[in-house]
């Protein structure tokens, strides 16, 4: 019980900068929601159930176009497809005995940033860590959208943009230590930057959604990295350290 409590509050602590960044981004997103005709309660529920700026923007665009629900569901599925990959990767961090209930709720709360801080933790991941991060980050995202609908035009665009920089700073804080500890990770990060830039400049990919681009690049780069720099199992490491052991 104490272990779960500590994991939860560690998640809350690490989720504070995420919540601050989310609030700023969602505040500006609330302006779009207002144009789509949503009230603050609807905006809050929309953000609480859909934790992606691109996904929500696509959702509000479909609403403004008066498109059917099926089209809205399909657009959001494609836009948020990268979270399927994140869920698969994060499931490998849990203890094998982790229940399907914990896996379901942590999957529900996966965002780019929560995935980043979760996957960066050493050792087995306690789902209560994710719950702590979700408990502070998701209300920040939802409240930002609701308040953006109410008073989205009060703050200048420059102030909203400045507040959102916190998210980029948090990502840098996640990838820099891991890149310094393992050269392979640093190489993969640089390769990801280069590939993302290249794809953004190639007209062939212009009609593809950002989420689809991220999903394809993630699979391709992660697959190549896994083939070139495989992570050894504990049994393999012990065998290398003790070559006299015969299997």
Can you describe this structure?
By secondary structure, the protein is mainly alpha-helical. It is built from 13 helices and no strands. Mean pLDDT is 79; it is low at 235-247.
Structural shape: globular
| Residue share in β-strands | under 5%
Average pLDDT score:
79
Count, helices:
13
* Main sheet overview: none
The structural class is: mainly alpha
Distance between the termini: 39 Å
Poorly predicted runs of 5 or more residues: 235-247
The overall strand count is: 0
Return Rg in Å.
20 Å
User: Would you list the SSEs in sequence order as H and E?
Assistant: HHHHHHHHHHHHH
Percent in helix: over 70%
List keywords for this structure.
mainly alpha, 13 helices, disordered C terminus
Draw up the topology in text.
Layout: H1 2-35, H2 40-49, H3 53-64, H4 69-79, H5 82-91, H6 100-108, H7 112-119, H8 127-151, H9 157-163, H10 165-181, H11 183-201, H12 210-228, H13 234-241
Brief characterization of the structure:
With 247 residues, this protein is an all-alpha fold. The chain contains 13 helices and no strands.
């Amino acid at each position: 019980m104490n272990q779960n409590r500590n994991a939860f509050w560690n998640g809350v602590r690490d989720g504070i900068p995420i919540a601050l960044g989310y609030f700023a981004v969602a505040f500006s997103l609330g302006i779009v929601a207002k144009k789509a005709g949503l009230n603050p309660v609807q905006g809050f529920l929309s953000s609480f159930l859909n934790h992606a700026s691109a996904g929500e923007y696509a959702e509000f665009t479909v609403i403004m176009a008066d498109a059917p629900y099926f089209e809205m569901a399909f657009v959001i599925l494609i836009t948020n497809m990268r979270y399927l990959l994140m869920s698969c990767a994060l499931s490998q961090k849990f203890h094998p005995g982790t229940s399907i209930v914990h896996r379901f709720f942590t999957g529900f709360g996966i965002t780019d940033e929560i995935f980043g801080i979760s996957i960066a933790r050493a050792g087995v991941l306690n789902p209560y860590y994710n719950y702590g991060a979700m408990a502070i980050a998701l209300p920040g995202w939802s409240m930002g959208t609701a308040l953006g609908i109410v008073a989205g035009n009060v703050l200048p665009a420059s102030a909203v943009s400045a507040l959102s920089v916190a998210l980029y700073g948090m990502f840098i804080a996640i990838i820099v230590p891991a890149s310094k500890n393992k050269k392979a990770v640093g190489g993969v990060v640089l390769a990801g930057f280069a590939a993302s830039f290249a794809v953004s400049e190639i007209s062939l990919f212009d009609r593809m959604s950002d989420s689809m681009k991220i999903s394809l690049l993630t699979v391709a780069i992660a697959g190549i990295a896994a083939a070139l720099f495989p992570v050894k199992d504990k049994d393999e490491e012990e065998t290398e350290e003790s070559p006299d052991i015969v299997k």
